[in-house]
Amino acid sequence: MDTVTGSAEQEKVPVNNAKSDAELSDMVLTSEGQACLRSLIRVWFEFERDLSNVPIVQRLESGRLSKSDYLLLLLNMRQQVIEGSRWITRSASSFERDYADVRSEVIGHAYDEHRDYEILEQDFINAGGKAEAITSARRNTGSEALHGFMMYRASQPNPVDMIGAMWIIEGIGNKMANQWAEHVRQLFATDNTAKFMSYHGEHDGEHMEELYRLIDRVCHSEDHLYSITRTAKVVARLYLLQLEEIDNENRK
Amino acid sequence: MSAFITSTGMYLPGDPVDNDTIESVLGLVNNKPSRLRKKILASNGIKTRHFAMDCEQRTTISNAEMAAMAGQACIDNSQLSKSRVGLLSCATSQGDLVLPGFGSMVQASLKLKGVELNTSHGICSSGMMALKYAYNSFANNEHDAALVVASELASRLFKATRYEITEDASPDFNAEFLRWMLSDGAGAFLLEPQPRGLCFEINWITSYSHADAYPVCMSVGQPRDKEDTRSWQDYPTYAEAEAAGALMIRQDVRLLDNVVKLGVDGFLNLIEQNKVDVDSIDHVLCHFSSEYFKSRIFDMLEKAGAAIPESKWYTNLYERGNTGCASLFIMLDEFAKTQNYKEGDKIMCMVPESGRFNNAYMMLTVTKG
After folding, report:
1. Are the beta carbons of B310 and A19 separated by less than 8 Å?
2. Is residue A20 part of a domain?
3. Which of A158, B63, B206, B367 measures 20 to 30 Å from A227, CA to CA?
4. Do domains B4-198 and B199-209+254-368 have the same CATH topology?
5. CATH number belonging to domain B4-198
6. Which residues of B touch A11 (CB under 8 A)?
7. Which residues fall within 8 angstroms of residue B173, CB to CB, at 6 or more apart?
8. ipTM tops the 0.90 cut
């Protein structure tokens, strides 16, 4: 995720090396869980590199995003965000009795995020957009594919691979809070247009702990590792498509 | 195929320069002390370094001569005659001359007869590229011995006058950042196809470049104005290029976090390919600044069972300075001569380059000939 804190411009206390031996013994993950986490970290890094080549992300990250670009970005993201609570709750209901504890975690996650779209819509209005424009907009090609895939996977019995989907979506939330929100605040010179993006940073630590626990809990075999990684890769690919389509579909 | 590092050497110019003296060597820009110096030095943790420059900013030894001194030290430390060296492979970020290649100048200084020559171009990772060229040459049984030399004379870029001559006559943060980071020095390895004494077998050298995904992060040759896409060579005169700040060395510090991410990504890739078994690593030599270890990626690596405990990390960055492509050579030389290690020990080396994101890795095994 976007985990490197601060830039070289910030005050830093020199630390001579990596973590001490004592701290290392606190590792909680099983060896299968660790292999899965290593694999997910790599999927994330590749996704992040691909993201940097998406035109609207390039404009955002280099400070060239226009106000109308931002409105389009929110408009297009909203359709996936509002569906987000559906695939999470669908996943929860697909977990059978042996996964009751996982179901509880996933329900908690769904509860935390199922009204995120309202914050997003308010940002859209604060940035000068019309309420009816965002509520009546349709899913773009990428959002359609992403939503379809999410609902399909979430409907399978015991969809442990959805941890891979949560990993990517959580990572995006993280990246928005830590990198993108600041660009938007600078663009509008106000705080009330980037609440959706910045809000994701607030529960950052807890959500990461939750994901570690889930990975540890559900990844017990080569097959699990494969399916979790594959779903993470597909979600990453379709998320890119969703962002790429913003520039493709809004051309006259 | 096997290749063994059977000798190492280094050359550091002049006396060590401490943090309080550094500005009197590089010079005061517009006669004013830097406001960023202490902050940047605190973040990189470097205590002393060396400069091939005196207090009046006059070069005391050329880059090629430094390289030759390190190469000679490496040969003097070996059991081999210089005449057995069949390949000279050199690296630097900026040679003394724009042309010819740096290796030609080093060969002349070392008076090596009729060798095969290679010069690799780049920044920090160019040393590893030069090393890999030599390593690969043993696959075809081409040489009895190869000398690999990496050398940097960065301080020429940091003279106060370089900043004063630009149109606005003051350095921006990105132009000043490296002034308190980089310094001068050279290191060398002698490679042979069989072990000799207690030496280091090179198991593999691998690198991953990500220039396709990210913009330039460290450069010389671009003007200060980011909208201006000209290279320093596109200006009518070099004086105009200099005035536009196109001859300054710059680091886009906002992009630096990516170095860590990509460094970790490459490391995890090597684990995935079974080239690295984290538990079997005995020593880590890494051309990293200390600040990186504060990042949360390292916390994540612990969770993922891919972190290497503190006791296994060795660096001499804080005493010898960040000498770019020469750093790892200077590090292994000092490690070999001062640290405890034994036959069979695995040494993981990492050289991340921020230029446009190229990360190089190498695995060594301590071997006895």
Report:
1. yes
2. no
3. B206
4. yes
5. 3.40.47.10
6. 39, 42-43
7. A9, B36, B253
8. no
